[in-house]
Amino acid sequence: MKLPAGTEGGIIINPQKEGMLQYLMAFKGAIMIDSGRGKGFILTRNGDLIAAYFKDKDGVYRGAAAVHNLMSASGGDNSLPQQNFVMRAYSDEDFSEALEMCTKGGLLIEAVPSAAIDTPALAATHESPRHPPISLNESTLAKIISQPGVVAVSAFYEGFPVQSLGEGDFEHVAARAEDLLRAGTRIAQDMNLGQPNQLILETADNKFIIAPCGDLFICIITRAEVQLGLMRVLLKSIQNEVGG
Question: Which of 14, 30, 57, 179 would suit a FRET pair with 154, their CA atoms being 20 to 30 Å apart?
């Protein structure tokens, strides 16, 4: 998921020593964190921690769990590389967009403070935040990764990897898959073709396949020689199983 770029507000190194709490009291935006153990971000507004995301070798964390892991990963462990907190200051419009994305991604830490809710993106709707399912049945992705020519498979939701198998930077894969999905859906709608059942990007060396699967989407990276017919049949059977 790509948060708004905002305006770079500087870099804080080793935040425990730099009075970060005082700085946060007047800061509105995203704090992009590379802790040495993992990467993530916190969305904050004038001292209120609104949403958070963190990923390390052990998994993906959202909301309060992400804050806990971000802070523990940013503790006083001298064996870790230098920790950089990149500040991205947001305008009201940027913050509104980021808050909507975090709400859809299930990243809210707790009930959003009233000051944060009064933004244009959320004031126009009374829908409850949507939270993605935790994962698919383990056998579903295992069935895909076991096919000849399949390199990696990931189930994603709103640009976030939910469950993955194989080798790859699944954070990056899910973000690019979301970009391709939105672009393909927009083109299909513009041409009155209906909703895409599958999107396939082919290069000389690989294929990249995206297909809906219940409330999630599955993206698959394969080698060029993979049999697309067999992959389509397999994906269709999985979609029938989960109702997607």
Answer: 30
